[in-house]
Amino acid sequence: MDRHERRESADMTTKAECIETLRGLIARSERNELADAQAAIIQFALAAPDLKSRTEAMADLQTTLATEMQAADPEPMQAAYYSVVEAMIDRTRDAVLTGPANA
Fold it and tell me: pTM score, two decimals?
C-alpha cells in the first residue's frame, strides 16, 4: 500500500466514522446533541488536506447521507433533524472553503 492509498484509506475511515456518528445522532434526534453533529462535520471537513479535497469530501458526505435518508424512510422528527444536519454540512462546507483569510 503506497502513501496515496493509505491517505485514501484514512479518509474513508474518517468518512465512515462521520457517517456513523451522524446516523446515530439522526436516529436519536436529540436537540442537545446538535453540537456533536456539528463537531463531527467540522472534524471530517478539516481532515481533507486541501480545498479541492474538502469540496469533494463534503459533497460525498452529503450525497451518502442523503441516499441513506431516502432509503431509511425516517420518522418526521428524524427527517427534521436530518434537515438541520444537512444545513450544517452546507454551512460548514462554505466556511471551510472560504477559510479565515477570506472571512
Answer: 0.80
CA distance 18 to 1: 24
| pLDDT tops 50 at residue 92 | yes
Is residue 103 in some structural domain?
no
For residue 97, what pLDDT is reported? 75
Q: Is the dihedral of CA 54, 60, 68, 5 positive or negative?
A: negative
Domain count, the chain: 1
Report pLDDT digits (tens) over 24-59: 999 999 999 999 999 999 999 989 888 889 989 999
Of 40, 38, 35, 39, nearest in space to 18 by CA: 40
Structural domain includes residue 63: yes
Range of the domain at 29: 3-98
